[in-house]
Amino acid sequence: MAYPTATHPTLIGTLWPTQSSTKILRLAILALVGTALLTVSAKIQIPFYPVPITMQTFVVLVIGMAYGWRLGTATILLYLAEGALGLPVFAGTPEKGIGLAYMMGSTGGYLIGFVLAAAVCGWLAELGWDRRVTTTALAMLIGNALIYVPGLLWLGSLFGWDKPILEWGFTPFILGDVLKLVLAAAVLPLVWKMIRRSK
Length: 199
Known about the structure:
Blueprint: H1 11-15, H2 23-43, H3 56-67, H4 69-84, H5 99-103, H6 108-126, H7 133-159, H8 165-169, H9 174-198
């Protein structure tokens, strides 16, 4: 079975094209900027109903789509490595613990989902899905699902399926995720439109 290959340049590849002389430096800067954005997005809570929201899932998905699947995945893995080493990069750290102990807690499955979501959203972006509102929204929806599935499976395994797993790890966040999905679906195609007009 043949799989679709990348047919479109990534957003970051268009804004900052790769040059062989600075390729490694460029990748390092982009990955570090991405982990910094992830850290900031994990720490800032926006008042919302029924629970405050962070912009972290938004940043994960946008990094995947803007960077492409390789650099996007590498950036999320670097972020997780920083957390595993004890840096307070996650939501609730250092107050709720740090390092591997924190990562093995209730958020562990969602962190795995970050990697899956960035990879798939990046791959879809390389197929041109980030050019239109409808396909961007669909890619973000797929990305959200890839975050929630391992997150909820981990919660259920950790605490038991007799507990209200969906009420703990899914339903309170639906409205916030819809808002972030709409925002991403508007922003990415708009940036591409601005790029086309500038040429």
